[in-house]
Amino acid sequence: MSTTSPSSLVRSVIAAVPLLLQLVVVDAQGASSLPKIRILATGGTIAGAQAKGQDAGYKAGSFNVDDLINAVPTLKHLAVITGEQVVDIGSQDMNNEVWLQLAKRVNAALAQSDVDGVIITHGTDTMEETSYFLNLVTKSDKPVVMVGSMRPATAIGADGPANLYNGVAVATHPGAKGRGVLVLLNDEIHYAREITKTNSTQLDTFKSPNRGKAGMTNAGRVYWYDPLAAKHTSRTVFSVQGMDQLPRVEIFYAHANMGRDFIDHAVKLGVKGIVIAGVGDGNMTRVAVDGLQEAVKKGVAVVRSSRTGSGITDRNVELNDDKLGFIASIELNAQMARVLLMLGLTKTRDTDALQKLFYEY
Ligand code: ASP
């Protein structure tokens, strides 16, 4: 007769735990009861590879969505994962067409009853703009979490796998629902509307300087901070349905000695909107103001924002927006203001109506 010692029994029970956990999440029909997450991959450093170890240089978007999923085997404990490669680019090459394509894929995925949330892998360079765009045009309350990395997948201490794991942990957490598009990097959860990339190399590059973070992760556990009041996702008036282009909006960066030649040229090219990353509270030289005032008279929407990186660009402070016909970006930086202005111009050309959007979104 075989006997089982107490210690070998303990060992067998411990060995059986992963199997038991798997049984718990598989119902009678053999279907998993874990949340179902679709990963939409777009490239970026999280999918980047160095030519050789220790190489400072790397190519973004070298690994595909299956490689990213397979690099984190523990994802299967959090969710049933499916993947889709939407594009394969460094996010410095992000453009309006890809935004529209991506937004349509996000909406299509979230409309499926067998998808509970979406993760988007994306480069960090323009993550803030893509996330804010999606935050305004996603028509679902299901979680959408964007993740990237600062180090390529082949680097020592690559941060991509942890970010992907934490991103799925956030997307499968009940508290993520209804918060709009979120960004996960470096154990920090950010609201799409608030984030900005502040450092070209460091892992803690994303900051939410005006209203703060959405939460934190710690060893895959999720901690939420206050929700944000600004409207997003199903509560916006914007939609990409049937849309195949966005109105052209350009950004100009204000500086000492700023002229108006480039403003005049943009107007001649037929831009529909101009955003100024102004000095201080959205200011610029007198000559640039003159150029923009003429642009307004020709039907171009002009938004003043600040190049300082945080704070409020308010109406009628040092410049009389009422008289000049300008719009103030309020809390949005220039790149975010461009996103909202493009979408706003798909709805209205009225200056007051556009200004209202900057208070609401
Ligand atoms: N250039 C890369 C990108 O934005 C940088 C990164 O992902 O961190 O795609």
Describe this structure in words.
There is one protein chain. With 361 residues, this protein is an alpha/beta fold. It folds into 2 domains: 34-235, Rossmann fold (3-Layer(aba) Sandwich); 249-360, Rossmann fold (3-Layer(aba) Sandwich). The protein contains 10 helices and 14 strands. It has helices at 6-24, 65-70, 96-111, 127-137, 160-171, 261-269, 286-297, 321-324, 334-345, 351-360; strands spanning 36-43, 80-89, 117-121, 144-147, 181-185, 188-191, 196-197, 206-207, 215-218, 221-224, 249-253, 273-278, 301-306, 327-328. The strands form 3 sheets. An 8-stranded mixed sheet has the order 2-1-3-4-5-6-9-10, sandwiched between helices. Strands 11-12-13-14 form a 4-stranded parallel sheet, with helices on both faces. The chain has a two-stranded antiparallel ribbon with strand order 7-8. Helix 6 runs parallel beside helix 7. It is globular. Residues 1-24 have low confidence and may be disordered. Aspartic acid binds next to loops.
The biggest sheet amounts to: 8 strands, mixed
> What percentage of residues falls in helices of 4 or more residues?
25-40%
**How many beta-strand elements?**
14
**What fraction of residues sit in β-strands?**
15-25%
CATH architecture of the largest domain: 3-Layer(aba) Sandwich
Mean pLDDT: 93
**Low-confidence parts, pLDDT < 50 over ≥5 residues?**
1-24
Small molecules bound: aspartic acid
Our measurement of the CA-to-CA distance between the termini, rounded to an integer number of angstroms, reads 73 Å
Strands in their spatial order, largest beta sheet: 2-1-3-4-5-6-9-10
**CATH class category label of the largest domain:** Alpha Beta
Specify the structural class: alpha/beta
Number of individual domains = 2
* Rg computed from alpha carbons, rounded to a whole number of angstroms: 23 Å
Would you tell me which CATH topology of the largest domain applies?
Rossmann fold
Number of helices, where a helix is a run of at least 4 consecutive DSSP H or I residues: 10
Q: Indicate the overall shape.
A: globular
Which series of helices and strands comes N to C?
HEHEHEHEHEEEEEEEHEHEHEHH
CATH homologous group name of the largest domain: L-asparaginase, N-terminal domain
